[in-house]
Here is the input.
Amino acid sequence: MKYIVDSHAWINYFDGNSAGQKVKEIIENNSNEIITNILCLSELSSFMTKKGFDPENPHKTILSMSKIYKFDIEFAKEAGIKHAEIRRKIKDFGLVDTFVLLTAKKINAKILTGDPHFQSFKDVLLIR
Here is the structure.
């Protein structure tokens, strides 16, 4: 199975909580293809820095366990339009979440997340 792992899922993975254990089973299963949108690295850097941790170790882990999805200008424009459309229904839906959603659509993958903002979308594995 192909999965886009969002920041929420990676945070649970590094935290090692019960949701993180479920994420770990999927990420560390060699039959799964794991992809992370490059913007999630920024979210994780911010989160780790706010918590007083060095973000370098998580980044190294993600780079060793995941392919990084990079995008072009057209993808960025499309994500901006999609974000505006989604925000009409989900007022606090994040811009990076839109990039994750669009990445999954482009490469035909499931989104692995614990973020409840994704609960109304198809092809989402919501881990709690």
